[in-house]
Design a protein that fits this description.
The structure holds three protein chains of three kinds.
Chain A: E1 6-17, H1 42-45, E2 54-55, H2 56-68, E3 72-73, E4 76-77, E5 80-83, E6 93-96, E7 103-104, E8 107-112, E9 115-128, E10 132-134, E11 141-145, E12 152-158, H3 165-182, E13 194-204, E14 214-219, H4 222-241, E15 249-254, E16 259-262, E17 275-276, E18 283-284, H5 287-294, H6 301-311, H7 316-323, H8 326-334, H9 342-359, H10 371-383, H11 388-401, H12 405-412, H13 420-433, H14 435-442, H15 449-459, H16 466-483
Parallel strand pairs in A: 14-15
Antiparallel strand pairs in A: 1-12, 1-13, 3-7, 4-18, 5-6, 5-17, 7-9, 8-9, 9-12, 10-11, 13-14, 15-16
Chain B: H1 5-14, H2 21-38, E1 62-63, H3 73-77, E2 88-91
Chain C: H1 8-16, H2 22-40, E1 43-46, H3 49-64, E2 76-80, H4 107-114, E3 118-123, H5 157-164, E4 170-175, H6 181-187, E5 190-193, E6 213-218, H7 221-231, E7 260-264, H8 274-289, E8 293-297, H9 305-320, H10 339-350, H11 353-366, H12 372-395, E9 398-402, H13 418-423, H14 429-434, E10 438-445, E11 451-457, H15 463-480
Parallel strand pairs in C: 2-3, 2-4, 7-8, 7-9
Antiparallel strand pairs in C: 1-3, 4-6, 5-6, 5-10, 9-11, 10-11
Classes of the chains: A alpha+beta, B mainly alpha, C alpha/beta.
């Protein structure tokens, strides 16, 4: 067997921290980055005698997500205790959901190079986060910060239907986009508000049975989602081709070395002794509540993409890029006024605007250029008042100052020169200054056209209408040629 | 025997309870007696019975997403047997 | 009569007419403590005397100024030491929490303070409320005030002994499988386990979460009504508390009309001490003579109650006690090699034998492969028992039964036989499995002068009926005595 005769089977287990103000079961703040152990109370510390009470918004956020991901929202669901010992788990159990999760099924559609891929979900449920163990700085001790303990988490489990590392990272990016649109999670993998573990196995192509899987942990960026899974697939292929067997185990992605490493200490299967949480009442969700929450959903990326492609005739690539972030889509939609060409708007946004925003580390909603201002600039180009090249520098000025295009053009005298007479004069001047090159052109070096055009543009400070310049230069040069 | 010595040791480990040999033997006998007695429930046919998880039958008890003052760092760490200024301290966790 | 020997209502009347002061009552209580505490050992921790007298004095001064005083009137109350009291050590009678000082009050503590009750101290219990005799405390054995060779019962042994020995006027205890009612019957005081959810559990150190309730220990039924009035009510910090209005229990003590009293035939089987049986039968005949209708009823699943209870309670306990790991608070073993060693030794030596036994049992009954046969099975049997009671309450208003198969036994007699001790809970666990309210009222004595109690149970949230029936019975017993 060779490696191309294997196919990879990938499932993702994702944890998303919810953007509620307070924790899942107590009123402590969920603010990120506070002084250690300054955002805890007897409840999230797990002191004797305390009891949990569910955060209403956490439930709403998870239902919202379930609706957006096409899940079935359970009319009856329950909390359960997952029992194990670890220093960052103050109660010695995590309150989660087991047999009766709030959302079941669901799917996400990916637009890949090979067409549409529907990735099924198994379930989405609510649970609480653990605290943080800090290991560095000491040989003898680990340090525990319980600020994060009790933060509401949403666990999303996919079916093992992902087939390539690229699909996996595409899934994560799309998920992040949806979660941000819904306002339920800020999707920051580096900060840990969005985390993903990957279950990876391989099997012979065409085989239906699943191979033995390894669980990959410690993936904290979209790039690493792809790299870690890619490495693991390769590793498993090598093992099988060598005649070995895959061990079901947990492996850590090691950023420094770019490999996955076995976590020997976690070989034993955990007996979590799940049982229904006696301190919390079941969650009953009526159809009315589901519909009320459904009505609060914004237009989601998938629907926007469809709309942009069908109504505005944008290519899929443009549509996906523009809808990745809600703010960007909003900006784009606000620019669709005054009969402007959507593709032109898209080009400017994906090109110059994105470049300037990235260079200046600005989010689009803090941009000094308003969507309407951009349409004004585009109209001026269409009219021929300025050239495309000049427009770029005008746009940069607009970006830095917030001034409108027309004002900048007037101020800087950037109106395009479009009358033949003026251009003719300039072309003549250039030709007279470069007679040697004229000779060379006549001698057959037709590429020198570019040189002459460039000189005319330079002399006119970029203001000459490029199309007209091309015409006139060609005419004069060829004319000169035939003159002789 | 309802439970073996191996199982007693496994359960003690799962529950993070160190047992002396004496304790293991005592618990082995006592747990066996108790579990044999508990097995009395097998006499009942409960195949068509729903379990009781909560006696009250309440649903949907929740709280608003509103902040309530946390303990100060000092108050939180006060009762800990081993700590520094900012953290609980535990023997190093080896992964 | 000494002030410490009076009941709450008698003292309230004297306080109202200013014949006595809170300070005088406190003084009388401390006299009693000085006299009896050494033998009875009801308390784990008694608050600073000066602080207590200052508190009493403050209330006296407010009374002189004709301020409104809460209905507990500055009366001294003891609290079982598994209920969190801010800034007062709360140990659960365990080495594990020997030095734990909670930074917060249980909800009922807040309510007691608001009602101007004065908390004298924390009473002894079986460690983490697991036991039936208060012999399993890590610190001391409480004795039965009627005969110090005998157990006071448990796990609220300290609470009941403190009331019986007049070392406080009223007490707060907790009941998971009979832990208020059984010691109340052993000590000759009145003990109530309210309907599950009637009283907030926030601040009660959890043992069996779906079974635990905080309850009252008093000298009579009228005082029960008073204390229940203060502690009952929904709590936004306890999702298992019931959002039902709290009636004025003290005003509802007179019985209107005649009751139908049910006697479960399964409860009068072998194992029931005949002195206890006679005392309970005496109560039945008093009620009959008083014109109430007495009928035989059946609780067919009675024999399965104890196993169902212990499986449920121990399973939940094994999880509830996982938090005691030496990391955030409480005891931590020293001289440990690594994290695993720290966990094993901390919990191995921090917990006593009964606690460890129950944790092991509960871990087993929840573990993979055994969950269905044990935990799930017990939960289903719970439903069957609830159905038995629903049927029974179609036929009667009140169910009468013994509280325990025997009166108090000698210290040490059952300590080494856990199963024998568990079987003693046969009449009491049912009220916890079903969540129904149940009260133990003193109804007689053994020939060796040990108290016997009788138990009344009724439908959920019907404490008014329960208390009025108990009150009537109490009156009938008093007229005969």
């Amino acid at each position: 067997m060779s490696s191309s005769e294997f196919e990879a089977v990938i499932g993702l287990e994702i944890h998303a921290q919810l953007l509620t103000k307070t924790k899942m079961f107590c009123g402590c703040s969920t603010k990120f980055g506070s002084e250690p152990n300054s955002q805890t109370c007897p409840i999230c510390i797990g002191m004797p005698g305390v009891l949990p009470v569910m955060n209403k918004n956490a439930l709403e956020f998870v239902i919202k997500t379930g609706i957006a991901m096409n899940c079935t929202i359970a009319h009856f669901s329950r909390f359960a205790r997952k029992n194990y010992f670890y220093p960052d788990l103050p109660k010695g159990y995590q309150i989660s959901q087991y047999e009766l999760p709030i959302c079941q099924g669901g799917h996400l559609v990916l637009h890949t190079q090979d067409g549409e891929r529907v990735i099924g979900l198994t379930r989405i449920h609510m649970e609480e986060d653990a605290g943080k163990n800090i290991h560095d700085n000491s040989d003898k001790y680990s340090f525990v910060d319980l600020n994060r303990a009790g933060t509401p988490l949403m666990e999303i489990v996919t079916e093992p239907e992902i087939r390539t590392p690229a699909e996996a990272s595409m899934f994560m990016r799309k998920l992040r986009s949806i979660l941000r649109y819904l306002g339920v999670c800020d999707g920051n993998m580096e900060e840990g508000s969005l985390r993903c573990d990957a279950n990876v196995s391989i099997r012979a192509r065409g085989e239906l049975a699943l191979g033995v899987k390894a669980e990959i942990k410690n993936i904290n960026s979209f790039k690493f989602v792809e790299k870690a899974i890619e490495y693991e697939i390769g590793r498993q292929e090598r093992v099988l081709l060598d005649g070995g067997r895959i061990v079901q185990e947990t492996r850590l992605w090691d950023v420094a070395t770019g490999v996955t490493k076995s976590m020997r200490s976690k070989e034993e299967a955990h007996d979590y002794r799940y049982f229904p949480e006696p301190d919390l009442m079941p969650v009953v969700v009526s159809n009315e509540i589901i519909e009320t929450i459904r009505a609060t959903l914004p237009e989601l990326p998938e629907d926007k993409v469809k709309r942009y492609v069908e109504r505005y005739k944008l290519p899929l690539y443009d549509a996906e890029l523009l809808t990745n972030e809600q703010q960007t889509a909003k900006w784009f939609e606000e620019a669709l006024v005054n009969g402007v060409n959507p593709k032109a708007v898209s080009n400017w946004m994906m090109g110059e605007l994105m470049r300037l925003l990235n260079e200046n580390n600005l989010p689009i909603d803090k941009c000094k250029v308003s969507p309407v201002h951009l349409t004004e600039l585009i109209a001026l180009i269409d009219k021929g008042t300025i050239s495309g090249t000049i427009a770029k520098s005008v746009f940069e000025e607009m970006f830095n100052t917030g001034k409108r295009a027309e004002g900048i053009i007037k101020e800087k005298g950037l109106v395009q020169i479009s009358d033949e007479g003026s251009i003719d004069k300039i072309v003549e001047e250039v030709i007279q200054k470069n007679l040697k090159e004229v000779e060379r052109y006549k001698g057959g070096e037709v590429k020198l056209m570019g040189f002459f055009v460039g000189q005319v543009m330079k002399l006119s400070k970029g203001k000459a209408n490029p199309a007209m310049v091309n015409d006139i230069v060609k005419r004069k040069l060829d004319g000169k040629a035939t003159d002789e | 025997m309802a439970i073996s010595e191996k199982e007693v040791n496994y359960i003690a480990q799962l529950a993070r309870l160190s047992l002396t040999d004496d304790e293991t033997h005592t618990y082995l006998k006592q747990l066996n007696d108790i579990l044999l007695y508990m097995a009395k429930l097998d006499e009942l046919d409960t195949s068509k019975v729903e379990p009781t998880c909560h006696v009250l039958g309440l649903e949907n008890v929740h709280r608003e997403d509103e902040e309530f003052p946390s303990l100060s760092k000092e108050e939180a760490l006060l009762n800990s047997p081993d700590k520094n200024d900012s953290f609980y301290k535990v023997p190093k966790i080896i992964e | 009569m000494k002030l410490s020997h009076m009941n709450a209502h008698e003292l309230k009347a004297l306080l109202a007419t200013k014949e006595v002061s809170c300070k005088e009552i406190m003084s009388s209580i401390f006299d009693e403590i000085d006299k009896r505490e050494y033998d009875v050992a009801a308390y784990i921790h008694i608050r600073d005397k000066k602080e207590l007298f200052t508190e009493a004095e403050k209330i006296d001064n407010r009374r002189l100024k004709a301020d409104n005083i809460g209905i507990l009137d500055g009366l001294p109350i003891s609290i079982k030491d598994n209920i969190c009291t801010k800034a007062i050590p709360t140990t659960c009678a365990s080495k594990m929490l020997e030095n734990f000082v909670p930074p917060y009050d249980a909800t009922i503590i807040k309510k007691i303070r608001q009602a101007d009750g004065i908390i004298i101290g924390k009473t002894n219990l079986d460690e983490f409320a697991m036991g039936s005799s208060t012999e399993h405390s890590a610190f001391k054995i409480t004795k039965n005030p009627h005969n110090t060779d005998y157990v006071p019962g448990g796990t609220s042994g300290g609470a009941c002994a403190s009331v019986a020995a007049n070392e406080c006027i009223m007490a707060i205890g907790s009941d998971t499988g009979g832990s208020i009612r059984q010691p109340a019957s052993f000590c000759g005081v009145t003990g109530l386990k309210p309907t599950y959810g009637r009283v907030s559990r926030f601040g009660l150190v959890a043992y069996g979460s779906s079974l635990d309730q905080i309850g009252t220990v008093t000298k009579n039924v009228k005082d029960t009504a008073l204390l229940l009035q203060v502690i009952a009510g929904v709590d936004s910090l306890d999702a298992t508390s019931v959002d039902e209005s709290v009636p004025n229990y003290c005003d509802l003590l007179s019985l209107n009309g005649k009751l139908t009293v049910g006697i479960p035939k399964e409860f009068f089987a072998e194992g029931l001490d005949h002195e206890v049986e006679n005392a309970v039968k005496n109560c039945i005949s008093l009620l009959e003579k008083d014109g109430h209708n007495v009928i035989e009823i059946s609780i067919p699943h009675t024999p399965y109650a104890v196993p169902a209870y212990y499986i449920t309670a121990c399973s939940e306990a094994s999880s509830n006690l996982a938090r005691y790991d030496g990391v955030k608070y409480g005891y931590r073993a020293t001289d440990t090699k690594n994290l695993m060693d720290m966990y094993l030794k901390t919990r191995g030596s921090g917990f006593g034998a009964e606690v460890k036994r129950r944790i092991m049992l509960g871990t087993y009954t929840l573990s993979a492969g055994y969950y269905d046969a044990f935990y799930l099975k017990a939960a289903k049997v719970r439903t069957l028992i609830a159905q038995d009671f629903a049927k029974a309450f179609e036929l009667c208003d009140i169910i009468i039964s013994p509280v325990a198969p025997t009166a108090a036994y000698k210290i040490g007699e059952k300590a080494d036989d856990p199963l024998a001790m568990y079987l003693g809970d046969i009449y009491s666990v049912i009220a916890n499995l079903t969540g129904l309210p149940a009260i133990s009222v003193p109804c007689g004595w053994t020939t060796s002068r040990l108290p016997i109690g009788v138990q009344l149970t009724t439908r959920a949230l019907n404490e008014p009926l329960l208390l009025s029936a108990a009150y009537r019975l109490e009156q009938l017993l008093a007229t005969v005595a």
